Amino acid sequence: PLHTLRNAEKELLPGYHPFEWQPALRNVSPACQVGIIDGLSGWTASVDDSPADTISRRFRYDVALVSALKDLEEDIVEGLREHGLEDSSCTSGFTVTIKESCDGMGDVSEKHGGGPAIPEKAVRFSITVMSVSVLAEGEEEAVTVFREQKPNSEMSCKPLCLMFVDESDHETLTAILGPVVAERNAMKNSRLILAMGGLPRSFRFHFRGTGYDEKMVREMEGLEASGSTYVCTLCDATRAEASKNMVLHSV
């Protein structure tokens, strides 16, 4: 029949990976064949109806995660084999840790372009699959079947959203990344069912916002950036406190 043929054709397309969420994600379409979407698509008009003078493109968060996992399929299956977790016994209990990064990309203006007037700075929000672990049935401890060897490399970092905006323009950033955050929150309470190594497997995701640079963290969290009295952006210890107590604060 024609629909079977269509589905078979779809699965041969590069980048097409059928998947499912249990329970279904709230306020997110169940369609899994979603390409690049307009980053402003969820943006409601402001009070004075002034259009946003920016351009943004992004992937839907869950589609990007599926694509990143499928890129690592061989490594994950190899990791299962190394730990003797034969395919048949291991279909659930997978946990994936995702590092989120957001950073300004500097001045990207094109001086010769005749297109719309847009901010001359760009910001990129991206994700990295840090590790995949599995808790086999009847086992006490989870086994890590994949760990990213170069977590800070450009090669392991997958862009999720690109936007023409200055990273200090808090309002625009919040409006564009709002739907991304909503999708992430929906995924925290659901499991992804995705074929991996020929079997449907169930994944849960943990998100860590550890890839923001100090300037972004200062914007978001209110801590100081480089040159400040604080040691780092992960705690509120000052340099003076850390120098007196090196046990709690290894710098």
UniProtKB/TrEMBL annotation:
<dbReference type="GO" id="GO:0005634">
    <property type="term" value="C:nucleus"/>
</dbReference>
<protein>
    <submittedName>
        <fullName>Recombination activating protein 1</fullName>
    </submittedName>
</protein>
<dbReference type="InterPro" id="IPR058552">
    <property type="entry name" value="RAG1_DNA-bd"/>
</dbReference>
<dbReference type="GO" id="GO:0006325">
    <property type="term" value="P:chromatin organization"/>
</dbReference>
<dbReference type="GO" id="GO:0097519">
    <property type="term" value="C:DNA recombinase complex"/>
</dbReference>
<feature type="domain" description="V(D)J recombination-activating protein 1 ZnC2">
    <location>
        <begin position="230"/>
        <end position="251"/>
    </location>
</feature>
<dbReference type="GO" id="GO:0002250">
    <property type="term" value="P:adaptive immune response"/>
</dbReference>
<dbReference type="GO" id="GO:1990238">
    <property type="term" value="F:double-stranded DNA endonuclease activity"/>
</dbReference>
<dbReference type="GO" id="GO:0008270">
    <property type="term" value="F:zinc ion binding"/>
</dbReference>
<dbReference type="InterPro" id="IPR024627">
    <property type="entry name" value="RAG1"/>
</dbReference>
<dbReference type="GO" id="GO:0030183">
    <property type="term" value="P:B cell differentiation"/>
</dbReference>
<dbReference type="GO" id="GO:0061630">
    <property type="term" value="F:ubiquitin protein ligase activity"/>
</dbReference>
<dbReference type="InterPro" id="IPR058554">
    <property type="entry name" value="RAG1_RNase_H"/>
</dbReference>
<dbReference type="GO" id="GO:0033077">
    <property type="term" value="P:T cell differentiation in thymus"/>
</dbReference>
<dbReference type="GO" id="GO:1905347">
    <property type="term" value="C:endodeoxyribonuclease complex"/>
</dbReference>
<feature type="domain" description="V(D)J recombination-activating protein 1 pre-RNase H">
    <location>
        <begin position="20"/>
        <end position="92"/>
    </location>
</feature>
<feature type="domain" description="V(D)J recombination-activating protein 1 DNA-binding">
    <location>
        <begin position="1"/>
        <end position="19"/>
    </location>
</feature>
<dbReference type="Pfam" id="PF26025">
    <property type="entry name" value="RAG1_pre-RNase_H"/>
</dbReference>
<dbReference type="Pfam" id="PF26100">
    <property type="entry name" value="RAG1_RNase_H"/>
</dbReference>
<dbReference type="InterPro" id="IPR058553">
    <property type="entry name" value="RAG1_pre-RNase_H"/>
</dbReference>
<dbReference type="GO" id="GO:0033151">
    <property type="term" value="P:V(D)J recombination"/>
</dbReference>
<feature type="domain" description="V(D)J recombination-activating protein 1 RNase H">
    <location>
        <begin position="96"/>
        <end position="228"/>
    </location>
</feature>
<dbReference type="GO" id="GO:0042803">
    <property type="term" value="F:protein homodimerization activity"/>
</dbReference>
<dbReference type="Pfam" id="PF26101">
    <property type="entry name" value="RAG1_ZnC2"/>
</dbReference>
<dbReference type="GO" id="GO:0043565">
    <property type="term" value="F:sequence-specific DNA binding"/>
</dbReference>
<dbReference type="InterPro" id="IPR058555">
    <property type="entry name" value="RAG1_ZnC2"/>
</dbReference>
<dbReference type="GO" id="GO:0042393">
    <property type="term" value="F:histone binding"/>
</dbReference>
<dbReference type="Pfam" id="PF26024">
    <property type="entry name" value="RAG1_DNA-bd"/>
</dbReference>
